[in-house]
TrEMBL record:
Transmembrane regions listed in the UniProt entry: none
CDD domains listed in its UniProt record: retropepsin_like_bacteria
InterPro entries registered for this protein in UniProt: Peptidase_aspartic_dom_sf, Retropepsin-like_bacterial
Protein name: Peptidase A2 domain-containing protein
SUPFAM superfamilies associated with the record: Acid proteases (SSF50630)
Amino acid sequence: MLAVVAAVGALLAQVHNHASLPDPVVELARDSMTLPLTTVGGRPIVQVRVNGSGPYPFILDTGAEGTLITMALANELKLPISGEVKVASPGAAEPASAEMVQIAKIELGDVKMTGVTGVALDLSSMPKIFSGADAPMGVLSIRGWKGFLVTVDYPANRITVKRGQLATADNVTIYQFSATDRLPTVSVDFAGTAVRANVDTGAGRGIVLPRSLQSKLPLEAAPVPTESLHTVSGEQAASRAQLKGAMKLGGYSIQGPQLDFVDEFPMGNLGYPILKNFAVTVDWQSHRVELKQSAPPA
């Protein structure tokens, strides 16, 4: 599964006929590794080597269920194709065609992934983020990185990978998600209504919710149309409104945030405008995620 939209992660792309992509083997040459955080449209960008070639810019995406590579790069590297698949976002009328590819090795600094099964698809129709000379060539998923803590620290402008596990969930900064959850999720309070939401570093929009919640939440005014979500399988209409009340996540609270509502959206999604306030750490071994407000470097 992948998160691939204009917000690269605001909607989950579902790979039909494949329950899940197999986890790669992940190795770290030392106990920890720190990289500078650079972003494009709020998405963290890392430089990876694919089968020894590169480096290529990839989005480091906590909201991606599998690693994605552009069809152009897959063709350039002559990656072996293991099958054809269909990808679609929730609510999409028609899925898009893609290919399952086998990647022997992906390297990110001192991190090495082997035996990677990825999905290659044409992203040329995707606006903004996947256009231009410095456009990302793929999306790197951290799903299945068991035994490692992966941190995207926005205030400190750094990405850290280290061995270890998060402490027991306290629902203040550390949250437990289910082993059956496909992505890191947290419970968010919207003016008294609890909503499960994905923690998605690949999303450019702050808060996206199912349209079914539109009539259940207190809003300052009726939602108005906003820019559509551009997905791999077409556009999906979105509307925007301001919450009449506070959004609360553990000890974090924001009054009157903007909410985007989308048809058939399965659950909430938190992206860059919210996550930029935190150091986001994912622990796939324990199925925990930490959102810790950290101070920017002096």
